[in-house]
Amino acid sequence: MIRGRIHSIETFGSVDGPGVRFVIFLQGCAMRCRFCHNADTWKLQSDDMRTADELIEQALRYRPYWGDEGGITVSGGEPLLQIDFVTELFRKAKEKGIHTTIDTAGQPFRREGEWFEKFRNLMRYTDLLLVDIKEMDPAKHLKLTGMPNDNILSMIRYLNEIGKPVWIRQVLVPGWTDDPEDLKKERAFLNGLSNVQKVEVLPYHTMGAWKWKMLGIPYPLEGVKSPTEQQVREAEKILGAGAPEASGEKSA
Questions:
Q1: Least CB-packed of 82, 176, 244, 250 within 10 Å?
Q2: Tens digit of each residue's pLDDT (9 = 90 or more) over 99-136
Q3: Of 9, 76, 8, which is closest to residue 36 (Cα–Cα)?
């Protein structure tokens, strides 16, 4: 029996997919994003180990509040580091008619071997993916996250190939991810996709900085302020943020 390494649960999530969501935050992430507000999810170990059945049973208690669009979202950390567990969870969720969403940065993705076959299987039970694009420029991405982004972009292209619905999320960090030229490159990349249902610009904030201090890790963006409303609007304009159907666009 597979047990997932759980970080925490949010029973009435409203920002991690459509409708009201039962959000499961998994433990473990290999990326080290300088703006991460969940640094406490990095380590792979967890004292909270649960089965898919246990989580489904808990989630169903809140089903009356989900409405027509709600369901389960698995976030993190990085859910794809526990791909076997997420697959079992989503398979059982679909048996109950539950809408399933993954919130991922895509870092573990590779289009080859056994892992890729597992990913293809997981997609059979996944209705929607929320995918973070940290930064389009490869060198800047590496400096920002400690990881390359070629495999992440490859995952997004693959999701387009199979027609899997995606919401794209871009965290806007002044001085780091707000370069208009990089945002235009991201827009050009998204223009080549037909499966993006929505683009969101998420303003950088420091609400998770205390977790770095709690872990004894120097906060790398000390002094960086949240973007202004004007900066957010400019980024949204470049990226065409929002739902395509609302703006009359064919794709995001």
A1: 250
A2: 999 999 999 999 999 999 999 999 999 999 999 999 99
A3: 76
